[in-house]
Automatic annotation (TrEMBL):
SUPFAM superfamilies cross-referenced by the UniProt entry: Heme-dependent peroxidases (SSF48113)
Cross-referenced Gene3D superfamilies: 1.10.520.10, Peroxidase, domain 2
A Pfam family: peroxidase
Catalysed conversion reaction: 2 Fe(II)-[cytochrome c] + H2O2 + 2 H(+) = 2 Fe(III)-[cytochrome c] + 2 H2O
GO biological process, one term: response to reactive oxygen species
Taxonomic source organism: Papiliotrema laurentii (Cryptococcus laurentii)
Protein EC: 1.11.1.-
PROSITE patterns: PEROXIDASE_2 (PS00436), PEROXIDASE_4 (PS50873)
Domain Plant heme peroxidase family profile residue range list: 90-313
Protein name: Peroxidase
C-alpha cells in the first residue's frame, strides 16, 4: 500500500478503495465486512455508563476480540493492516470507521459525515479500565422489536433511526460458522440500495427448515435469501413498519436517514468535543432524536455542514 501525507484522509479513502476488491472472499468484496467492522466497533456505546463506542479500537483486545458477535471481523482488520502499516499516523479507530463509510459510498450508498480524532488504547488493561464490560451490547438477530429498542435506546436512537440502520442488511451475508445464521438478505449484497425494505414488504417469508437457529427464507431469481427474527420484527411492529414502508418507497429518503444514523453511530463515545458536529451528535443521543431533528448547540453551525466531506465544520 502507498504512504500518504499525514492528515490526508482523502488519500486514505483512496487506499481503502484499493483493497475493496477481494476475489475469493464472500461475494468478492471487503466492503460489507468493513461496514460491519465500523458498526461493531461503534455499537457498544452506552449513554448510561458513558463507555464503549469506536474510540480506542478496543476490538484489538480481549474480551471484544473473542466476542462471538464479532466473529469474522478479523478478516476486515487484516484487509486494512497494510494501510495501517504504511500510514502509522492514522489510528486503528479512525481507519476502521473511515473504511466503513468509504465502503458504503463505493458500493453506491450515501456519503456519510465522518471526522478524525479517535485514539487507540495501548493495551488490554487500558481498554478494560476505560470501557468496562461492553459485552452483550450488540443486537441479537434472534430476538424481537423490544430487544431492538433496548439495544439502540441505550445509544439514544429513535424508531426511525433503528429502521434506517437496519438497512445496512442490504450488504453482506450471514455465515453459519460465525453467527449461526446463513445467507444474504438481498440478491446483490455488494450494492447499497433500499432493496432490503422492498423485499421485507413484498416477498412471502417462511421459517427455514434446517438444523440452525430460527431464520426466514424466500427464493428470488434462483437465490435463497434470508431474514432474521429482528428483520421480521420491523414489519411486525407497527411503529417500525411505518419507516420500512417509507424507505421501500423512497430510496433517497432512506439514504439521507441512513447517512445521519450511521454518522451518529460512529461518532458516539469518541473523546472529542471540540467540534460542533460532535456536540450535535451528543445532543441528539441525549434527546433520543435523529440528527436532523435536533437544534444545533449554542454557537453551532447549520446541520448541512455536517454532511461535507470529512465533516470539516
Amino acid at each position: 500500500m502507498s504512504k500518504v501525507n499525514e492528515g490526508d484522509y482523502n488519500g486514505i479513502r483512496e487506499e481503502i478503495k484499493k483493497v475493496l476488491k477481494q476475489p475469493g472472499y464472500d461475494d468478492g468484496s471487503a466492503g460489507p465486512v468493513f461496514v460491519r467492522l465500523a458498526w461493531h466497533a461503534s455499537g457498544t456505546f452506552s449513554l448510561v455508563e458513558h463507555n464503549g463506542g469506536s474510540n480506542g479500537a478496543g476490538m484489538r483486545f480481549e474480551p471484544e476480540s473473542v466476542d462471538p458477535a464479532n466473529a469474522g471481523l478479523t478478516h476486515a482488520i487484516n484487509f486494512l493492516l497494510p494501510i495501517q502499516a504504511a500510514n502509522p499516523w492514522i489510528s486503528h479507530a479512525d481507519l476502521w470507521t473511515l473504511a466503513g463509510v468509504t465502503a458504503i459510498q463505493a458500493m453506491g450508498g450515501p456519503e456519510i459525515p465522518w471526522q478524525p480524532g479517535r485514539s487507540d488504547y495501548e493495551s488490554k488493561e487500558a481498554a478494560t479500565s476505560h470501557r468496562g464490560n461492553v459485552g452483550d451490547r450488540l443486537p441479537d438477530g434472534a430476538k424481537d422489536a423490544d430487544h431492538l429498542r433496548q439495544v439502540f435506546g441505550r445509544m439514544g436512537y429513535s424508531d426511525q433511526e433503528i429502521v434506517a440502520l437496519s438497512g445496512a442488511h442490504n450488504l453482506g451475508r450471514c455465515h453459519a460458522d460465525r453467527s449461526g445464521f446463513d445467507g444474504p438478505w438481498v440478491v446483490n449484497p455488494t450494492r447499497f440500495s433500499n432493496q432490503y425494505f422492498k423485499l421485507l414488504l413484498t416477498r412471502k417469508w417462511k421459517v427455514r427448515e434446517w438444523d440452525g437457529p430460527k431464520q426466514y427464507e424466500t427464493i428470488v431469481a434462483g437465490t435463497r435469501l434470508m431474514m432474521l427474527p429482528t428483520d421480521m420484527a420491523l414489519i411486525e411492529d407497527p411503529k417500525f413498519k411505518v419507516w420500512v414502508e417509507k424507505y421501500a418507497a423512497d430510496q433517497n429518503l432512506f439514504f439521507k436517514d441512513f447517512a445521519l444514523a450511521f454518522g451518529k453511530l460512529i461518532e458516539l463515545g469518541v473523546d472529542r468535543d471540540d467540534t460542533r458536529f460532535a456536540k450535535l451528535v451528543n445532543k441528539a443521543a441525549a434527546e433520543g432524536k435523529p440528527l436532523d431533528k435536533v437544534s444545533p448547540p449554542s454557537g453551532g453551525c447549520p446541520f448541512a455542514g455536517a454532511l461535507k466531506r470529512d465533516a470539516k465544520l
